[in-house]
Design a protein that fits this description.
The protein has about 130 residues and is mainly α. The protein has a domain of about 80 residues. About 65% of the residues lie in helices and about 0% in strands. The chain has six helices and no strands. Helix 2 runs parallel beside helix 6, helix 4 runs antiparallel to helix 6 and helix 5 runs antiparallel to helix 6.
Length: about 130
């Protein structure tokens, strides 16, 4: 994948541009997809459990211990999402962006629900969402 990105950057910046020449669509799509991924991500559960207060009475409860151990081995499915994003981008071009974005959105919702469960089990007064 690094070669693909490098070839996009090399292609877009190291060629002479004429009047009315446009930026390659693949580069625009890659930047847009990267922006979507970075902008709307919930924090990883591993980071969420690190921010919990050890002084909270619920911190050492069996429910909290269970969810914290599950958070340590939480699978974010990075490989699957990357494969879907790259495959749909290569085969469908710009039209593959909604597919890749929907896979990321579904994973983000799952991560948010898991983080909410951590808050409910480990915090006496969890924030309202």
């Amino acid at each position: 994948m690094q070669r693909w990105v490098a070839s996009l950057i090399d292609f877009s910046y190291n060629r002479p541009r004429g009047k009315g020449d446009k930026v390659p669509r693949k580069l625009v799509a890659a930047v847009f997809l990267l922006g979507l991924v970075v902008a709307g991500c919930a924090p990883k559960p591993q980071l969420n459990i690190q921010s919990l207060s050890t002084a909270d009475p619920k911190f050492n409860s069996p429910e909290c211990l269970d969810i914290r151990s599950r958070a340590l081995v939480y699978d974010d499915k990075v490989g699957e999402r990357a494969a879907v994003g790259v495959t749909s981008g290569l085969f469908l071009g710009v039209f593959g962006l909604p597919i890749a974005a929907s896979v990321d959105a579904a994973q983000n919702q799952e991560r948010e629900a898991f983080n909410r469960e951590i808050e409910l089990r480990c915090m006496t007064n969890p924030p309202r969402h």
